[in-house]
Amino acid sequence: MAASISCVLQGWPSSRAVSGSAAHQSLAGVPVVVSFPSKGSAAVERAAGIRCEAGSGEKVGFFGRLGRVIKEKAKGDIDRLFNGFSKTRENLSVVDELLTYWNLSDSETVLDELEEALLVADFGPRTASKIVDELRTDILKGKLKTGPEIKAALKANILNLLTQKVTTTELQLGTSRPAVIMIVGVNGGGKTTTIGKLAHRFKKMEDTKVLMAAGDTFRAAASEQLDVWAERTGSDIEVGEGEKKRPAAVLAQATRRAVEEGYDILLADTSGRLHTNFNLMEELRNCRRSITKVLPGAPHEVLMVLDGTTGLNMLPQARQFNQVAGVTGFIVTKLDGTSRGGCVVSVVDELAIPVKFIGIGEKLDDLQAFDPEAFVNALFP
Length: 381
What we know:
three-stranded antiparallel beta sheet; disordered N terminus
């Protein structure tokens, strides 16, 4: 049996307090996540105007609320997301042309051309074939009889590929502090910049303490670049000690500091590396182990940054990094209108790992939570 829960909106009469399943009805439309962690945050409750307690008197989780606030921002960025996928949408414009005068006798020809359009948009052979085969089956069964019906089914099939194998696109940060997020990826993907943007989002929450770990000890000036982001976002930074710093040692030291000094979030940077370099990839494994040794259960998220302009090159990179580091989510960057958005679907479909954020520009606010439905609508308006 689920634990009971009571919620009180601050400023409401006490008679508006509700409990059990009724709480969910009364809170409809309020962007909160009700959970049962061990710690809460008075600052978050003040910002949200809500106080929730479980049957045992525990407050709703800080990290649950934090994830929800970040998620809500995606709802207001549809136009910018639309612009970010202009190139992919251009490649897929042929879909409307194919379906405008669609008839059953030409269905095979149309489906073949539709599959080709998906391939051009970097959906990948496996994913494109899966989407078209599903349409073909429904057409033969008589479920789809018009062009608009086929387009609606096409969008539904793609949305299904983005959601059926993953439980959520929200951050899963555990129930106690600090939450550790490890950022991995190949050279040039935008890891350090992404850390800065994540910190900016977290710092928007009142009293959120963010620590950055300069785990990229190979690239010249990497720690200096991260230090700029720390200053810009009002975060702290741990750079390690000594001249010849090892990434694993820096991350272990940062984790200890985060625990001892009561930080809410630790953002751990790592060195960019080619997924084909065995020794460097093994060092990445050591980085993860060093964090876990200090704080069992951490890192809570391992987010891989993927360059949206590389298309299907994302797939082999993602496979290898997942094997070594245990990737829990992707951040797709550089969606600036030249990127090939279909690869996002292929990566999620093949690896069953969600996209959690997408980068749609260079400004601090240009990292938004991934919304699968908005993404599909941006590809097929």
